[in-house]
Specification:
Keywords: Acetylation, Membrane, Transmembrane, Transmembrane helix. The chain is of the alpha+beta class. It contains ten helices and eight strands.
């Protein structure tokens, strides 16, 4: 019983660890794209400085002395413009709580999908919102495995957001010269990778053509969007974070 109590205590301490450096984050967290919470300190030219908020466990959390420090978070798959930096500084408030989904390490920073609460139950991706407003451009996340499902899912969502801004002429896409240069980007980056997966490319283009969508496909698309919003709700994010840490503690 005494040994079991010591092991349980050790796991609880591990679950309440506060990360202040990308090197401290377990590889399993990044591999499984775990979502963590953080408190915004400031928006810089290099990215967002977030203070990680660990899981709170009564007694243990109050007993432990947490280190001071922030994590440098970059918006994965997004090349921010100057207007994008200004929008982030205006939209995000100091000490605002954000969720960040771990995708990869980039030297001393983390490439993440950033999520901000909208209402009580739903969240919005800042990566996609920046692109929908024409405040940035999509870039390939080279640190991710090109054959992984998460790689194609994330890039598909980012591309959809960017194309929406192009159609509406938002932000940097107001000028026709920017729109023409966008097609050149396809030749240099996206098209090279898309050529390796013709079925995915055809499926994505079909999904984005409203003339080919039947009622069933539109209904299916709406259901998938609802499922995504539900899975990204604040409650579900907290549950997933807790389960990921429990799983890691058992190891």
């Amino acid at each position: 019983m005494a040994v079991a109590g010591v092991m349980l205590f050790a796991r609880s301490i591990k679950l309440t660890t506060k990360f202040i450096s990308p090197s401290e984050i377990p590889k399993e967290f990044i591999k499984n794209n775990v979502k963590l919470r953080g408190r915004l300190h400031r928006v810089t030219e290099k990215g967002l400085e977030l203070e990680h908020i660990p899981i709170h466990v009564p007694l243990i959390s109050s007993w432990r002395r947490q280190p001071c420090g922030v994590l440098l978070i970059k918006l994965a798959g997004v090349e921010l413009t100057e207007a994008g930096h200004l929008w982030l500084r205006k939209e995000l408030k100091p000490f605002q709580v954000l969720w960040f989904q771990l995708l990869a390490r980039d030297n001393s920073s983390l490439l993440c999908y950033l999520l901000v609460n909208r209402g009580l139950y739903f969240t919005v991706s800042l990566n996609e919102e920046i692109l929908r407003r024409g405040l940035g451009k999509t870039v390939l996340i080279k640190e991710l495995d090109h054959n992984s499902r998460v790689y194609w899912t994330i890039h598909k969502n980012l591309l959809k957001a960017e194309l929406k801004a192009i159609r509406r002429g938002e932000g940097i896409w107001k000028e026709d010269t920017e729109k023409s240069s966008y097609m050149e980007k396809y030749k240099g980056s996206w098209r090279e990778i898309w050529s390796e997966d013709h079925s995915f490319k055809r499926r994505l283009l079909w999904e984005m053509d409203p003339r080919r969508k039947s009622f069933y496909e539109r209904l299916k698309s709406q259901c998938e969007k609802y499922k995504d919003k539900l899975s990204n709700s604040s409650f579900m994010l907290k549950v997933r974070e807790f389960l990921s840490r429990v799983k890691l503690g058992k190891r």
